[in-house]
Amino acid sequence: MQHSGDLNSSSPAPQAKPPMPKVGVAVFLLKGDKLLLGRRLTTIGYNTFALPGGHLEFGESFEECAAREVKEETGLDIDKTEFLTATNNVFSEGANNHPLHLVCIFMRAVVADVNQVPQNVEPEKCGGWDWYHWNDLPKPLFKPLEVMIQGGFTPFPVSS
Ligand SMILES: Nc1nc2c([nH]c(=O)n2[C@H]2C[C@H](O)[C@@H](COP(=O)(O)OP(=O)(O)OP(=O)(O)O)O2)c(=O)[nH]1
Ligand SMILES: [Mg+2]
To answer: In this structure, what DSSP letter does residue 112 have?
Structure first.
């Protein structure tokens, strides 16, 4: 017997996937009492100073993601990578005006070679990288970073 029309016509229309939280990994790259910051040129936090970082890829460890993102964005190799803390934020102004729910993992690391100089590998996403003293950070900081620091967070190891 021949069917006419759409065999699936009685099935409900496919639903748009519900939005899911994403995982970001940002790196406090430390050099003495300085840290590496770059001016963002992307939608979220445009023109604010933020840490190198990006989104966790499927199957990656936090350490692998930190090393990959720092390399992709600055050309630097990192060492002594450690987990510090995590945040949970909803950004109202994500891509295409959709809100973005982001769990961000913050790592601490140092440069593997102190003579290596940061390169602005992705000039379309960043205005340039530089080392800034913890007591003289540039303004404006990326909002989630500013909130953490104002809340008393420090990425430096506690000296005993
Ligand atoms: N890079 C960076 N991301 C941060 C910081 N604080 C914070 O909450 N995040 C969150 C928000 C970002 O949307 C998310 C991922 O970083 P990103 O926005 O730099 O992502 P990206 O385009 O470089 O990454 P990708 O999609 O190419 O993997 O991490 C920070 O100081 N620096
Ligand atoms: Mg990034």
So the answer is: S
